[in-house]
Amino acid sequence: MKLKIKKGATVQVITGSDKGKKGSVMAVDVKNMKIQVQGVKVQTHYDKKDGLLKKEGFIDYSNVKLVEAATKEKKTSKKATKSKSA
């Protein structure tokens, strides 16, 4: 299934304990329909080497709404750059 929310987009959480929080999408799991949002569902893990680590968890795709789509940089072809400089 194709998802409208892509990596780099800004989303807002609409349900759950983090309701109202905004953040950018860090990762998208299309198979399980889950996304990872910066600053949302922060989980703490203990590691012997590094101590306490904070990491964002995945939340369901249906629990967020798109605020701003990810911007895609337009690629310019070699022909277009040559014609502009001439």
From TrEMBL:
Keywords linked to the UniProt accession: Ribonucleoprotein, Ribosomal protein, RNA-binding, rRNA-binding
Gene3D superfamilies, A to Z: 2.30.30.30
The organism's place on the tree of life at top rank: Bacteria
Gene behind the chain: rplX
Organism: Bdellovibrio bacteriovorus
GO MF entry, a single one: structural constituent of ribosome
Family label: Belongs to the universal ribosomal protein uL24 family.
Assembly and binders: Part of the 50S ribosomal subunit.
CDD domains noted in UniProt: KOW_RPL26 (cd06089)
GO BP terms, alphabetized: translation
KOW domain mapped to chain residues: 4-31
Keyword Transport: no
SMART domains reported for this sequence: KOW (SM00739)
Listed GO CC annotations: ribonucleoprotein complex; ribosome
Function text: One of two assembly initiator proteins, it binds directly to the 5'-end of the 23S rRNA, where it nucleates assembly of the 50S subunit.
Coiled-coil regions listed: none
Protein name in the entry: Large ribosomal subunit protein uL24
